[in-house]
Amino acid sequence: MSKYTALKKEANKLTTLPKTPTGINGLDEITLGGFPKGRPTLICGGAGCGKTLFSLEFIVKGVTDYNEPGVFIAFEEKAHELAMNVTSLGFDLEKLQKDKKIKIDYIHVDKSEIEETGEYDLSGLFIRLGHAIDSIGAKRVVLDTIENLFSGLDNEGILRAELRRLFQFLKDKGVTAIITGEKGEKTLTRKGLEEYVSDCVIFLDHRVINQISTRRLRIIKYRGSLHGTNEYPFLIDEEGISVLPVTSLKLDKPVATSIIKSGIPSLDQMFSLGGFYKGSSILVSGTAGTGKTSIAASFVNAACSRKEKSLYFAFEESPSQIIRNMSSVGLDLQKHVDKGLLKFYAARPTLYGLEMHLVAIHKAIQKFKPDVIVLDPITNLITVGSFSDVKSMLVRLIDFLQESQITVMFTALTLNSIINEQTDDGVSSLVDSWLCIKDIEFNGERNRGLYVMKTRGMKHSNQVREFVITNKGLDLIDVYIGPEGVLTGSAREAQVLLEETGMVLHSNALGRKDRELLRKRKVLEAKIESLKTEFESTEEELNKVYIEEDIKREVITKTRKQMTQFRSGNYQKPDQANPKEE
Amino acid sequence: MEIEGSSPQDWTIAVDEKYSLRLFVAGASSMSVKAIKNLQVILENNLKGKYELEIIDIHQQPLLLQKEDIFAVPLLIKKYPAPIRRLVGDMSDVNKVLKGLGLN
């Protein structure tokens, strides 16, 4: 975790406070190395918050991981009760006690048996503790819960003075100690132990919100050391306690430029680089039954086929259910499971709180070290948290995944309600690629239309593709977009057929039209010819009239001249007359 | 390990109806001395000849601490007669000591 390594570096510069690693998963990270060495640490919290388990794991891990023997002074439970309580965690206290690695001493404080008759001190406890420490060479000590002394003894003045002496005694012994304390009404512990143990105080909390419990841990103070200051969720499971520092909010993740395929070739084609970036986050959202899980499964299938490890977090279906269902679309996930490339992690969202889910997811990822993970579906998590909670959880998860260069695919169910739209919006700002599957209801059937809402850092197709699920796998087909709108499914098929028929008819029609044109042309040409002839004859006719007119006029003029001559007496025989003499 | 006073013979005292008492002290501190003195005075005044008192220095017997479940000292354990009582302190409160011994 980059934030913590940065803090650690700084811490090393500033202080040389020696620390004792607790061995508790994740706790050493937020305390930057563990508890202050040779000093007491107070762990406080309400009933059932995990104080005893916490301190017991500190002792056991001390032996198993760091070869540091430990003494456990129990004021509440007898040694064999303790041993029984933690066998489920794989801690064999009986054996560790026999091997002289651990010493458990039960101090019974019963007020009804005790009469106080004056001044006293706790030398008995000191000697007992000192003897236990010396007998096994203990480096770690737990006092659980020392406040019980207050319930058995009345003289608080003496007890307080003795506690002060006890902590000094522990320091002198050089042991790293854990003191546990029950949470008080206004104080961290009922009797104000925090006044005495001032080096390191850790508060455990067990909150129930909406009937879902979440355990959280917070370092209230750590003198002389930097530490994470947030509330960190922690998980108690069959391997003990896991705390995870999951609030690194720096945006300084490494990025990859390599491409990871989606497992659907036609989907990859929608991206200019032919797939998603490695280490990116992909959201697949859609309404119920649109094939989100199928997309996720084929993504996982593709990863496993490339020999990459995949982890599938199922919040809706059981692993066997997913495997069976996916075999119907031609995806054989079982073979990947058998090869150990694919692992399912199935849990009902209501199993525990969001934070716990996050811790569990972290743990599973750290253990399996996958290249690809799927969360199917994230919207189911809303049942255990508010939208902002889910969002903040996903932010942290995506952060963590990006740091580890793990590609993640989320599926999200969109309902036709405003609330869920918001969820999509909220998450969409976090994810790098967003595929949206929409129901297209038309012509009495429902079909799936897939489009890429966004993808960061590369061009993508803006086309709606029809998403078809066949028994051979998933595919995308270009939808028909025509004058009648977007057509999918059988309407698209029909349209394609219709178009094919249309083409034949059309070419046929074209031929006929051509021939008709030719004929028309011929007719017209013939007509033009006849008109020409007609015009010629009309012209001739007209010319004839002109000549006749000319001749007529000539004759008339001649005749008139003759008539004039005749009237003037110079009558001549018309045939004797010489017109040229005029 | 053989622990003084814990052998079965101890319980034969019960037949004699003597008070079986054990006082645990931490070394020769002033509190220890005070407790021993106070207790002896009380016992002499109230149970003369009817008690057996064993004084144990816990520094010498650290294993006994766990067995007898001792944390606060001085501690007087009344083994007999029943009920077992544990009296913590320097025995300066005479009434409480008597009450603890079942003598008032």
Explain how this protein is built.
Chain A: Residues 562-575 have a biased composition (Polar residues). Chain A: Keywords: Coiled coil, Hydrolase, Kinase, Phosphoprotein, Repeat, Transferase. The complex is a heterodimer of chains A (582) and B (104). Chain A has 582 residues and is α/β, with parallel strands linked by helices. Helix content of chain A is 41%, strand content 24%. Chain A has three domains: 2-243, Rossmann fold; 259-478, P-loop containing nucleotide triphosphate hydrolases (Rossmann fold); 482-582, no CATH class. Chain A has a nine-stranded mixed β-sheet, sandwiched between helices. In chain A, helix 13 runs parallel beside helix 14 (387-403). The termini of chain A are far apart. In chain A, 42% of the residues are buried. With 104 residues, chain B is an alpha+beta fold. In chain B, 35% of the residues lie in helices and 23% in strands. Chain B contains four helices and four strands. Chain A binds chain B through residues 105-109, 113-125, 127-128, 130-131, 149, 153, and chain B through 24, 26, 29, 31, 34-35, 38, 58-59, 62-63, 65-66, 69-76, 84-93, 96-97, 99-100. Strand 6 of chain A pairs parallel with strand 4 of chain B.
